[in-house]
Amino acid sequence: MKNGIPDIPTHLVLSPNLSYTKSGPLLRRLSIDELPQLINIIFGEMVFIGPRPALHNQSDLIELRSNVGVHKLIPGVTGWAQINGRDKMSIVDKVKYDEYYLLNQSFYLDLKIMFMTVFKVFRMHGVSH
Q: Which backbone phi and psi does 53 adopt, to 5 degrees?
C-alpha cells in the first residue's frame, strides 16, 4: 500500500488501483502477501487452516462472528470462506462459511481446504484487488 491511504476495511476500498504500489497487485494475486503469517503460526498465534483473522476496523465482521461463536477459533491463514469466495464474498456470507467450519471441523475438511487453497491460489481465483 502507498503511504497516506485511509485505514478502512478491504471490502470498503473503492479505488484499489490508486492504493497499491506497482508490485502490490502481483503480490496480492499470487497471495505472496500472506507469507509473513507463517511467523504467526510459528509463535502459535495462528494456524494454517481456520477462519481468517478480522482486521481491527472490521467491526461488522467481528460482531457477526461473535454472535455465532466463530471468534473462539484460532485464526488461520486460509479457511472455508476463503476457498469459497476470497475477496468477492459479502461479510454475511463469510460468517456463514466460518460458522460451517466451526460446526464441521474435521481432518477431512482441513485436507479439502488445504488442497482447494493451493488450487485457487494458482488460478488466482476470487481475488478482486
A: -65, 140
C-alpha cell at 74: 484460532
Q: Which residue has the cell 474435521?
A: 106
Question: What is the secondary structure of 84-103 as a DSSP string?
Answer: TTGGGS-HHHHHHHHHHHHH
The whole-model pTM stands at 0.72
* The pLDDT of residue 128 is above 70: no
Domain ranges of the chain: 34-123
Q: Look at residue 115 and tell me whether its pLDDT is greater than 50.
A: yes
Residue 114 three-state SS:
helix
Q: Which residues pair with 49 in a beta bridge?
A: 78
Helices (H), 1-129: 16-19, 24-29, 37-42, 59-68, 80-83, 91-104, 107-123
19: Cα within 13 Å, side-chain hemisphere: 14
DSSP state of 45: S
Q: How far apart are CA 124 and CA 18, in angstroms?
A: 21
